Fold these 2 entries.
Entry 1:
Amino acid sequence: MADLITLRVTRYRPENDTEPTTQDYEIPLRKEWAVLDGLNHIKDHLDGTLSYRWSCRMGICGSCGMTVNGEPRLTCATFLEDCAPGPIRVEPLRNFPVIRDLVVEIGDFMRKLPQVKPWVIREEEASIDSEYLQTPAELDQYKQFSMCINCMLCYSACPVYALDKDFLGPAAIALAQRYNLDSRDQGSAERMDVLSAAEGIWSCTFVGECTTACPKGVDPAGAIQRYKFTAAMESLKAFLLPRGTR
Amino acid sequence: MSKRSTEPLLWLLFSAGGVVAALLIPALLFLFGLAFPLGWVSPPHYAHLAAVLGHPVSRLGLLVFCVLALFHWAHRFRYALYDGLRLKHLEGAINLLCYGGALAGSAVAGYLLLTPW
Amino acid sequence: MTGKAQYTQFHPRWYRPRVPVLWWLRRRSYLLFVLRELSSVFVAWFVVFLLLLVYAVAQGPQDYQRFLDWSAAPGIILLNAVALSFVVIHSVTWLFMLSPHAMAVRLRGRRLPAAAIGAGNLVAWVLVSAIVLFLVLG
């Protein structure tokens, strides 16, 4: 008989509860099981009313982010054994409104993301059968930032976003940098207004927790500080150079 | 609008101040704050210190250091008050305190270091 | 957990947790962040301390001696000891944790690893401190 471990899961049923409560579930402690497998076990065998999001189980879809033992984690990449002996606290991601149980509402991010125009912008499109070539060194400039899976762990870890919901936030800025640093892109000037607004990069105080939380090694904190430098240089140039030469 | 145009400049001052503060203050503060008062090292003679501080290069260097370090404080402390104590609604007063303080301190430093002794 | 549930258009009620005023006491990394930011207060204090020294030296040998006596008062020594520890937090975080992440230095097309930038900063710190010691002690 396998060992057991307790998952202490946050429940919030909006039709009954005014505040979240917790519920304990005993699940088998299996070496190959992640927290997400434990939740699936609960859903399938113990309590079908538990709500949470998940999809790929391999750290690509970015939908199973939750707060595990107080840390923002992908539940598919957090193994039960590493959290033993338990009880393991499973809460919804912080800094987002809770819809139900472990499901949070990320509409705020979905509205912010298109503001930074996260796509390749060209002044003139090349003809349909030509390609935009890129060297490995050019790819290397932005590749790290392209690994983002929009899992929202960085927003959950960010105290600035917790305090100020107008803050554009780590992932959106890192994704803007992903396109700014792409040799095929010509849209960095279009992105600048949103990024260098007070609610953009300047709200960030470099706590660095977004980078710690990121499961894909994106380093949003680094991206933001580097963009601060770029923006500061741009505004110095605008200040020092007469109009027309810039 | 005015905030957007000054923020990059304030950030550059903050960053430059952070670098000079990180490199210079530990050694200086260790000497004058602990080592000399506690008698670990005997303090320099007046004539030596007066000669070092009398040189225009060191005075200019100290002035630059003071201005940058003060703006470093202003910028960081402002955000510490905004976020750490959740006082963003007092933005105007905080900005006045921080950057006004840094400007006033810079003026005092300029007066002390630029007037001939 | 004192937040209020709210009715919204498409969902019956969302629960919005509220952030406590002293939110940075709840996590070690947040506490370190706030201590790091508080170091700026002691940076400002050091500027004041330095200007007092400069003023004393400008006034003459007696004032310089008076400054040395004043700085040996227990209260001032204690203040400076606290200030020094905060300034060291600033130096260590700034030189080895923040700037290596914030700078993207490229050498022959390759990005320098953060550790290399940190090592460069360490050399600069030692060098500057040596110059300070040389200038002050002669």
Note: Strands of chain A lie at 4-11, 21-28, 65-68, 71-74, 88-91, 98-100, 103-104.
Entry 2:
Amino acid sequence: MDYRQEVTGRLTELWEGRETGILKGSPEIFNRYRTDAFSQFLRLGIPDRKNEAYRYTNLEKSFSHKYEKYFSPKPDDFREAERFHCEVEDLDVWNMVLLNGFFPRGEEGLAMLPGGIWVGSMRAAAKQFPSLVEKHYNKYAKNEKDGLVSLNTALATDGLFIYAPGNTVNSKPIQIVNLLQSEQDFFSQDRNLLIADDGARMSLLVCDHAISPQHYLTNTVTEIFVGRDASFEIIRVQNQHNYSGKITHTFIHQERDSYATSNNITLHGGLVRNATWHKLNGENAETHSYGLFLADRQQHIANFVKVDHVAPNCNSTQLFKGILDENATGAFNGRIMVHKDAQNTNAYQSNNNIILSDTARMDTKPQLEIYADDVKCSHGATVGQLDENALFYLRSRGIDAREAKLMLMFGFAHDVVKNIPIEALRDRIDHLVVQRLRGELSYCASCAIQCN
Amino acid sequence: MQTDFLLQIKDLKASIDNKEILKGLNLEVKHGEIHAIMGPNGSGKSTLANVLTGREIATVTAGTVTYEGKNLLEMSPEERAREGIFLSFQYPIEIPGVSMVNFMKTAINEQRKYRGLEPLSASDFLRLMREKKELVEIDSALTNRSVNEGFSGGEKKKNEIFQMAMLEPRLALLDETDSGLDIDALRIVANGVNKIRRPDTSVIVITHYQRLLDYIVPDYVHVLYDGRIVRSAGPELALELEERGYDWIRKDADLSEETWTTDRK
């Protein structure tokens, strides 16, 4: 039997038990969309390779696993998570720890940071800011395009909520450490809503960190609203293990004169697919999408990016890079869409990949679709080996071949890392990249179980 | 056995894609000597630089190269550099994301390690950088950037000489260092080489034109033609070449016009 039918069957069981499961304690605003979303999911199904956006990504290994747990952790589970301490010492941030995508203390979990920005759980936000949540929830996510987005809308029970009211500025970045820890294999859906209202400025760092060796699969939907003249920066650092699957769908909706950047740094993960949708809905908006991944063994890392230029006079850039070794596979699927009225658009896209072994594989598909006539757009993709001329140049100064290769890979990766707006984090990520390239950084290095 | 010779090339033959480029080249360089190698396009000048620095583009098919009494051809490019060979590239490579500081610090410390020396401290390294930057008149801002990234042609060549100053080689190969330089940049680069050079540093200047040799005055001038050195003399030979071109050399080398045209395509 096709694994998709079997998995859909398991999810349908969950859905049928919703009265005692999903619906219990969930915000009404979540429940409102579920029935439609679930039938949409049944119609679209789990994406397979016939789906153009998933053509090079095989979800079977992650999805066919029999997970034991689907919903939020129990209160006890959070105790250990709260003891977690991020080791980046000089990182000056507001730090919060989530467990498997869920906020501790569920319904009470909502607090205002100095400066006026609210951070907490969706459940609490639906109570405290009902009309705000109603205004934005499920307005940007494209349920009709991707079965996994509609699955999230149907089944998600909670997630992260951040609200920067008009003209608030966060004095320092917010760091969310999302720990993946469970005694059972789990498949979770978290649903996040991040709002920077008109004139607000904020930056957010999300670190996914696996600390137990169970099989995980997380299917995350994040909706981001960036109001007029607002600025929003999101940086994700994904460091998971070979048995983890991470699927993210991020929808960034921008109004006029706004600024947004998204930066996905994937250091480690069994199966990772990051889909980032940027919609430039108002004039003079600017958006940047960056991504870097390092993959080896049997890992698969995919980036899907869509930039929609709806309004005129907007700028966008996409820069995605990958380094693949051993049997790793990667995919890039990026599209710039310039709508009819989006005159004077500047849109750039670039995808560069380095393949270090004969057995690694990268598929890349840069696309442009232009319906306006006064635009500047470019796109390009490369897949290749390290530059032999550059390698020789370094060696001719006395640097040995191994070190020279590392320097070149570091330089290649730094091109993405240098765009991270927080200096302490940029340095830290440079350092993590070096460690990863030297083989010193892995989930396994800090784990007693040594599952590999 | 200690010899006077820093470098001895004997009957060197090398091919690229099975096409023989060097066809039995002989050259001997003593400590402290400056040799100029001149010749028309396609005569094998750059191939010689590649063979001497270990770039795998060319395959050596015959002959020997002895450097300080050791078999140079057995060494990796990095070993040759650590033994004191430096190539100033005709086309320096841009390496985005690798800072000049990190590049030079790694290169110097790898060379120091090879000689059994401790790595330079951060402050000693920065002092050395500052000193050498002044010596070769390179703009300070350039060394804060990625290696050669966005440098102009002249800046790239100056950067080569700056690296030479930092690494203090025993044998410097200057491959068309004058190409693409205006007269002011040429003077700065050439003076840089003269200032860096210690009495026992040997230099091989590979060049098309005589003008660089006004500043870096050679002890010997050799004409490389069709993979062989066909004439060697003092600096006056360079002036003669400047005046008369290479045609008379070609005739002297007793090659028919036919061969010449075929070779040149």
Note: Residues 52 and 333 of chain A are 9 Å apart (CA to CA).
